[in-house]
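Record type: monomer structure entry
Structure origin: computed from sequence
Chain ID: A
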Amino acid sequence: YSQGGEAWKNYGALGAQVSNTPYGAELMDFHFDPVVLKLIGLLKKALPDCAEADIFWGYHFVTGALMLTLARTGRINRLSGGLCDSDDFEAVKDRMAGFMAAGFLAICKTGAGPGR
């Protein structure tokens, strides 16, 4: 995807933006829920001591980060004063997987607990 050229980047941005509409969400549910549930199953195997609810929440948070990244809104460009660029998929690739993995490990380690 990140090396597929502008057309693939535009496709990802369109998908990310459309998925946040009622019709788009319905399409995403229909086409991607079976894949997502397989991923959840893999995460349960990879993180056997993690509460099931925390795995679902982790997926929810990861998906939000991914969709915002794919949408390429330019917000990070403005917030960072140009230090970061929402079109810089190499920078995303260098950071996102580690960030997401650390998030899953943290939520599984600490759990939700009262008062959090």
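Annotation 1: Residues 54 and 107 are 6 Å apart (CA to CA).
Annotation 2: The two ends are 37 Å apart (CA to CA).
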